[in-house]
Sequence to fold (159 residues):
Amino acid sequence: MATNGEKAYELHQAAIGQTEGSGDWLEITQERIDAFADVTEDHQFIHVDPEACKTMSPWGVPIAHGFLTLSLLTKLSETIPTPAERLEGIVMGVNYGFDKVRFVNPVKVGSKIRATSVLTAVDAKDPSTLQVTKTLTVEIEGESKPALVADWVTRLVYG
Fold:
């Protein structure tokens, strides 16, 4: 009889290359940018000084830190639908890292962003652990180029 991990592996394997969908839109506010600046101690004017941005920034308004957008992947991806059968018997998911991250387009204050996910790889590390790679693209509402594209690697542990 196949374990939950082995069943999940087969289901993930069959879905490689498929778009899993897009999540909900999230507005990037100045308050969120300021809070991130405080936590990371990165107070560069292009992020936190709307008045200076009017004359000194090519965008005319503050932009989100690239790492803020990256750190929001957890929030952005939680509303992307995942077939329940792929998660049957899951005990936990662990962030394993990124194979590639590209900051393509700045996110201006007041913009809305969302993530789209494509399952790109799955490896069975043992009968109960899968390593899953997804390419996440963070779109900016109304923009032709995305904010970022990242290959995110997670470990899924099944009981």
Q: What stands out?
A: The chain has a mean pLDDT of 96. Residues 4-28+67-158 form a domain with the Thiol Ester Dehydrase; Chain A fold (CATH 3.10.129.10). The longest strand covers residues 112-126. Strands lie at 19-22, 26-27, 90-103, 112-126, 129-140, 148-158.
